[in-house]
Design a protein that fits this description.
Layout (H helix, E strand, L loop, with lengths): L5 E3 L10 E2 L2 H10 L7 E5 L5 E10 L2 E11 L10 E4 L4 H13 L4 E6 L10 H14 L7 E2 L3 E2 H6 L6 E5 L18 E2 H6 L6 E5 L7 H8 L4 E5 L7 H15 L5
Parallel strand pairs: 1-3, 6-7, 6-12, 7-8, 7-9, 10-12, 10-13, 11-13
Antiparallel strand pairs: 2-5, 3-4, 4-5
Length: 256
């Protein structure tokens, strides 16, 4: 890992085409890191790969950067990169989900409303800040798309045709048995993913307390949805998101 600071920028990147930084990024380089003219920095914009740049003109509190050379080309985002849909929970746990989804390569991060969703407002500006910082720190060359909070049905309807919704469902079908007994239990996530071939996947994490019986029946009745189990332990929502994305990356993604 390089110790050179790394920033996401919105400007186009080309050799010799200097551009100004905003106040926050200028303050970070000049006052937090105490860098000066000529100091090396790395930047990416999600389009032009990663570039070595240097601090150029400094005027007062603002700095500009001068691209020197491209060090990594921009890869194509795999069509199969996972989408994460999740019911927001408490603030710290929701922030954790957004951060780890970025680190684990989610192409989209989509908060959804279910019957038992506890948090019914989200701050997209905060989500974007978390996503940006996570991408900068983890060498990611793009940013996941962050969607606004919307009802679960609308979020599923907006998915591209052919996307399979993997929803984590730890219950069986016996209403009188603890956690639904063993009848109707979902298959292990690894087995379900193995049977999907190269179909694009959206991973759905429900709220604390799980889906209502009506939601569960509705999801299980959809042709584009498949229930999965994350094992014999009941996981917190934020743990389930990390676990499901990790399994996907190990079996279908760039951990192979």
């Amino acid at each position: 890992m390089s110790s050179t600071p790394r920033l996401f920028v919105t400007q186009d990147l080309a050799e010799g085409a200097a551009f100004p930084l905003d106040d926050a990024q200028s303050n970070y380089l000049l006052r937090v890191l105490r860098l000066g003219t000529g100091a090396p920095v790395r930047v990416f914009n999600g389009r032009d790969g990663e570039w070595d740049v240097r601090i150029g003109n400094v005027q007062g509190k603002r700095a500009s950067l001068e691209p020197v050379s491209r060090v990594r080309s921009q890869p194509d985002v795999p069509a199969s990169a996972p989408i994460l849909l999740f019911a927001p929970v408490k603030k710290a746990e929701t922030d954790f989900i957004v951060e780890k989804a970025t680190e684990l390569g989610a192409a989209q991060i989509c908060p959804v409303l279910t019957e038992r969703t506890q948090t019914r407002t989200v701050r997209l500006d905060r989500f974007h800040k978390i996503v940006l910082e996570a991408a900068e720190q983890t060498e990611r060359l793009d940013l996941p798309e962050v969607k606004d909070l919307q009802p679960l049905a609308a979020a599923l309807d907006a998915l591209a045709a052919g996307t399979v919704v993997i929803f984590c469902d730890e219950r069986g079908d016996d209403a009188d048995a603890p956690w639904g007994g063993e009848t109707g239990r979902a298959g292990p996530i690894a087995d379900v993913l193995a049977g999907l071939g190269e179909a694009p996947v959206a991973i759905l994490i429900g709220p604390e307390g799980g889906f209502t019986p009506e939601e569960r029946d509705w999801l299980r009745g959809r042709e584009d949805a498949a229930a999965v189990s994350l094992g014999p332990r009941i996981l917190r929502a934020e743990t389930a998101a990390v676990a499901a994305l990790s399994v996907w990356q190990a079996l279908k993604g760039d951990w192979r």
